[in-house]
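Would you mind writing out the residues of a protein together with its fold in token form for me to study?
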Amino acid sequence: MHTLPLGHSDLHVTPICLGTMTFGEQVAEPAAHAILDRALERGVNFIDTAEMYAVPAREATCGATESIIGRWFASRPGTRGKVVLATKVAGPSRGMPWIRKGQGMTAADIVASCEGSLRRLQTDVIDLYQIHWPERHVPAFGTLYYDPSKEVSTTPIHDQLEALAGLVRAGKVRYVGLSNETPYGVHEFVRLAEQHGLPRVASVQNPYCLLNRSWENAMDETCHRLGVSLLAYSPLAFGLLTGKFDQYAPADAGAPQQARIARYESVRKQRWGRPEALAAARRYNQLARDHGLSPTQMALAFCYHQWRVSSTIIGVTSLAQLDEDLDAWDTRLSPELLAAIDAVRWEIRDPAQ
């Protein structure tokens, strides 16, 4: 698989990234190591994780995913140098006091979180260190509107960049990125970095899929003009775009219980569990079948070959899922099918935004 540069950095990543938030919850450690081995064998060089994983977030599994990856590195000498490793510092805890105390994300929090990730990952350096969600109060995770009355920010963006700069100078982080960000946030991080000689963000990790194309409403222009890469997450809309939920209501007790959306009550209450999202997924899934494709093939191919996307983050729970997702790389959508996809979006817009 070919690689491409991430933003203005010298990181070269594959256009498919292995997401790992299921490791330590849905995926036991031996199976996680097998998935990591297979991804590397098939040419994937990019792995993404976070200090708060596994998901759903809870105290007992916080940090478990990084530890599983760290033990994988330790048991396979030489592997670390073959991988572009990305992890994330959690934003303000907001209901997760086991991550940190207080409502903000201070410069000291960023440094402490990085040190913890380095220990768990058993590595000396993180290639891409991302802020998981903004320290500011922004519309994210299913919230549609910005509400200035909820602003409780305590750490200016400049101070966050200074903390990240210290980690870069210390050789603990190579490049920095953002996640779940807005156009304002990206512009401000880039502006302050250029003005003060601080690390420039290489990438933004935001949701992007057939059910949520909100990236195309300003974020695409922002990041294209600023040279910031999109790492697209949830390309299969938490499983809705695989077709396996087509016959169920989102919270139906009969839905496959091993699937993420059936296990995560908080997710069902957010964007992916909306009745409108399931109805839209059924439309797209049938469109795929009508064109001789599986729903998974169409949904992934849509992300894989978008000019807006630098790398698509896939999350799997088995080797079979991994192979299916990687095999979809060879799928190309015809102009007619892309037009049909756009026609559906014009009608139903972004039900999982």
Q: What stands out?
A: The chain has one domain: 4-239+303-332. Strands lie at 4-5, 12-13, 16-19, 46-48, 84-89, 126-131, 173-179, 201-207, 229-233, 311-315.
